[in-house]
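ingest -> validate -> predict -> emit
validate: passed (alphabet ok, no gaps, 296 aa)
predict: started
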Amino acid sequence: MYNHQLDTFIVVADSGSFNKAAEALFISPPAVIKQINLLEDSLGVRLFTRTHRGLQLTKAGQSVYEDARYIIAYCRESVERAKKADDTQPSVLRIGTSTMTPGQTIVDMWTQIREEIPDIKFQLVPFENTPENAREILKNMGKNIDIVCGVYDERALKHWQCAAQFIADVPMRCAVSVYDPLAKKDRLTVEDLHGRSIMLIREGWNEETDRLRKWLTVEHPEINIVTFDFINLSVFNDCENSDRVLMCIDMWSNVHPLLKTLPVDWDYSMPFGLLHAPKPSKTVKRFLNAVKKLNK
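emit:
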């Protein structure tokens, strides 16, 4: 209902820098500059001047800035009023799905869930696994995506500014290339990993993986730990193309066709659940209640 370049304009004005605005918006600085140039061209006024302290609003820019916040807020309120007035609009639950956060858990439960909430439809919203997308989606749950299935801990929820409904504790496994001698086994012992390198996500990502890292370092120094920053497909490719072992969970077992996921005789697991906004919508609340009832 309004030119969304105004959103970018407000972030640039608040940050006083194209680079800082780009970081906040998870896009490149040239993309931010292009949007501002297009906005200035469409309005026919100059919005910013460059100074040694950064960007400053012109008088015209200050005027647009003051009105833009009102325009954006009013448009959002207008859409919400329209949705509430439309009694025929179906309730739609938007499920974020990616390689590392597949929506299969919800799909598998959907037949039973629909018995509780037959009027709610669900829509799969695919997204690419990148650190930028993870931050944008999880810090804005309910904006474009309502639910994401994934592993978490309380520290992560606080950082992402979202909430989660617990489903189950999922065991940590190990994935190896199907050509690795370990792939012939049905189950691994920790001693099977002696002399090998295990790929673990960086410290601080999850409390339970940190516990596993500490235990391996102290009790099994024969195992070399290789750290990576973010779980995505390239990590699985690295595992398959090397003789390394990858810490994995069952929901990632189909990510790479040439990797085999195996249970290990250790007692480490992570909470898995439905990530959602701290203040979920009525539709999301009904869905979460239905899942909770099914999960008893």
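Residues 59-85 form the longest helix (27 residues).
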